[in-house]
Fold each of these.
Amino acid sequence: MKLMILKKTIIRVLGTALFLFTTFSILLLSIIRASFENISKADNLETSRTIPIEITIRYPNNDSEVFLYKIPHARITANHPFYIFKTIREHYWLTFSKGYYAKSKMALFLGDKKISESIILFKEGKVDLATSTAKDAFDKLEYAQFLFDKSGKIKSDELQLKIARAGITYQQILKSNYVKNDNLNNLIGKINAWNESQNHR
């Protein structure tokens, strides 16, 4: 009799847990979908870029070019207890984006969010976490380039220019926050090599 009661109690608890998990998942996906619909509008993707970074490019012939690259403001960084929900949201933002071109724009935006997070972490002295976050940003940037290439758009497209300038911006951000760290040094080297390859596209 006690065994039967125990089994029924376990089944009831598991059923309740499954119901709550399913309800929470549906609610979370609904919130993520709503946030995606809002941010994916072209105007919102651009107006979310509120932090201007002044970048100077110096060419071999001693000419130089100055441009502003704007990145989004980051509210939550990787040391926040709820960061996992941000990671899930970003995954679905990419999933919900339709077509290679739209996915490329979203991947670039998410990469820029990551580099913004890394700036905050560098300022807090969390070099390893900042470097790891900057690597995530670079991974997103490489993915954005991959998706753009798959989209079949011409190389003079505005998005291609943004992708190229993002690489230069990431590199200079990391150099301006440089401290002696092997992982950071390796990452700067990788981004520099990637930027060099962009010149031959």
Amino acid sequence: MRAMILATHGTRIRLGDLATWLGAAASFAAVGTALWLALRPERLARKNRPELVIEHGEVEPFERAMMVGDQTGEYRLRIGVRNDGATTALRVRVTIERWWSFSGRPKPWLANPIDPVNAEWVGQDVFSGSEAFALDIPSDGRGLCGILTWRHTTQDLVLTVNPRRQEWNPVGGGPFGEQRIELTVSCENAESKRAVLSVTLTAGVPKIDATNTVLQAPMHDVHLSEAPHSDEVENRGLGGLWNEGGK
């Protein structure tokens, strides 16, 4: 039987070949549609998940001077955790993992002996139990979390991180100079974020004006950094040396 030929504008196409091409195109379209439908729930779930962003700064509300009488008694450093996602971030926690202080020694960084601990959310009742350290953050919302407190009257730099107000001070050489603190921000329905916060502490009295605006802060140069390399870290605990290092 003679093959049927379709002639259009001088182009000759065998109808059998055309049917084959159309069948292949339909198969590709069916596979593409199936893949799109299969991946669509995952894409929608990712789109609708919370997106946590770590905020920091050198002005209110990230740095705050606390008055005792007519003098500044404490100076507090906080970070913000903002939710840029479409849904509420559930039970967000900020965990302080490690803390290094710059010492200027042959190994310039000193590892402070702390355990991983949950930091306090500003405004939460820290004596109410573990729930004080888990905060729901709505879409476009933000929570503030305390990281460091500088006590001018006693010249102490401390982490205040649990319901019993257990505190850690940097070891050796005094608290002044650069501090690096490794943080993990986690929640039940979003990916965790890990960051190293750097802040430099200088001696002197914090200066504020009549409206409690900080004019000269003891904590400055706040930025995200990296963990010191292990070759640069001296691991001196309260009882001597141990083997853990930086990154």
Amino acid sequence: MLHVETTSGVWAAFCQQIAAFLDADRIVMPIEGQRVGGYRSPDSRALWIRDHSDIVRAGRYFEADVRSSVTCFAEHQSASGRVFDYVTTEPSTERENWEKWVRVPVEADVEYRFVKAAFLAWQATGDDAWMQTMLPALDRALTYSMTHPWRWDEQHGLIKRAYTIDTWDFDYTAGRYPWLNFQITEDTFWGLMHGDSSGFYEAAQLLGILYAHADETEQATRWQQVAADTRERANALLFNGAFYTHFHKLTPVTIEGLDEARQLSLSNPMAINRGLATHDMATAILRTYHQRRAETGAFAEWFSIDPPFPDGAFGEEKLVGGAYCNGGIMPLVGGELAHAAFAHGFESYGVDILHTYRKMIAESGETYLWYFPDGTASSVDTSTSPEAMPTDGWGSSAMLYAFVGGLCGIEDQLHSFTKVRCCPRWLAAGESEARVALSYAASGASFAYDYAHVADAHTITLAIEAQHAETEVAVLLPAGTQPVQVQWDQENAAFTTEQREASLYVILNGTVEDHATIHVTYANA
């Protein structure tokens, strides 16, 4: 459940519309006598663990079944640790109604997305017993990524893949294959795509958290070290000073007419949200997106990749510049970008992205996986896939992820809202009052607050409700002010301040048992 009331009133409708999109994107299928549910891609009648692992970030507030998909993929994991991409019982190009499991060979991201999906399910359910049964599968998945010759580059100690467009599932063959190619061959062009490093880094971190929660200290320490080593190596090799280079080549290849060094690809804002990028790297990436918006003339800077590859370079005539993953404008990128902006002192930028998307879906009643740079929506005729649903869950869930974690500022840092960072940023949106109530459908665990900013009195009040939450509170102050007094339940409280670019936050910590009221008084600096 997600309930939002604000002074302007516009955000309640925004949340309701995205909830309706997500409801339309639920897919349930029978697998070996069990009902397996999850979130589908807008262009495929299948349950892809990669799409589900992102969409469930928002979907878990509305849907109770967040475990069955993860359990099912774990049960069908290979002995090596490899995880399937997707399962379907309704093949789009076949008449047989069989159950079909598929792994796209060029994909390198499936295992770390599987770990993320499991972690999100555990957060929403608080089911320690279930998670205990999942740990061996999660460990095997990341171990496979680090050991299989198709997935791991020993020289650099990072995830490798075929030359795909960012995280997409077909690779460049220099014309050796007549259409889109999904298979590894002796002619595969290998390299390092930065999104795999950020995704693997995050998954290793999460696996370390799960092991620590299960009191398996040795394994927790091991995966935390793997994560730290990955971050150090990836940031030293793949960051070019302004953003993460799209593809660090291991196999030499040149694509004529393309300035590959300028290619800004969709996993850049994800690298920020996954924690791979430092604050300085994050601000450089955000500024790069600002600059591209001014340079390109696109209606939004949510590029899948910019500049795109030459038309048809991957063997599909529909894959022209500005279409789909070859330069199309994707709300899923916009949502990640907005979340990153909120977290790194670009709050007004985050609000601007959310407002742009809010107005888009309010006017059309639809949302698509991608748009052409001029704002034209994708369609069946312009897509490489057989469907183009107007209820894209991948992008809409990313926008809700940015709204909840960024603007509302509620981030569950463990599970069941027992450890929370509460950082409302309504000041940046011009909202003087807000009521936010958030709960997981699977467990009913909840966290809520009432926010009030009285500018004339120079006060901000935050009244929090939670069953039991170790809470870090971060209160954004108006520009040009400093805190004078901070109280927790009418008692003076110790606090610090944190500067994020031009934004100043008051930081304090405490335990919320049912209710707590934080009162901040500020003055002009």
Amino acid sequence: MAYIALFDVLGFKRLVRAKALPEMVATMSKVHTCLRASVAFAKDGPDLRGLSGDAYLAAHAESAELKFPSLGFSDSFLMYSPTETDHDFHHIVLAANKFVCLALLGGLLVRGAVTKGDLHVSDDSSLFVGEGLVRAYELEQRQDWLGGILDPDRIEVPDVYDPMRNICESYDILAERRYILMYDVPMKAGSASSRCWCLGWPAFIERMPEGELIEFLAKEQLPTSDSATRKHANTVEFFRYHRVISKEPLDYTTAGGLRFKVRRD
């Protein structure tokens, strides 16, 4: 078993058809750099203090000793943990959030999912197979926005910290900083929205104004359509919600556990 984060580049088919091969290779190489920089980010900031800037990440992306492997194939990008500890979960959430943001800043939109399941990757990364990979792909395909979710059936995020058991520390830190949060995730036609834990990627671009995000979305390579318009609108709505919820303090229960508030406007 491993933690698995799988992402797809939105509008990939149109990119392939519209760009010459050398230009396409340069574009996807940039996504690979974003992926490696994101994993390096998670490695260098496991306790969420003293987080490094993008310039540092880019400079160290190629030489970083990665905490967990990552690879890309066609329009899909994968990162996974060697084990399934809370520490691994902590790292993969950091890396997944950062990847969404770096890709966005690079002019590409990605959507993904984080799950836990079986995965085999050969030593030379020429073979990767497992039920967990299929699960992550299915979760990614259901969503109708930019970003990602945590598998609601396989990743249980406790909403109360029990100091006697001390099992939720990573979850508490991630939730306190809104790197993960509960949200009514928009799903594609035929599926109702699903309230579950998702990636809080706006926390990693907290200085970006909403207008700038809209400009980035407008540069995206998807053709103009009702589907693209809806996907953009869902993304902006989540961005706004994250801004609101990030300003709310945590609420401590009378039992001494930690419970955080989630408000829907």
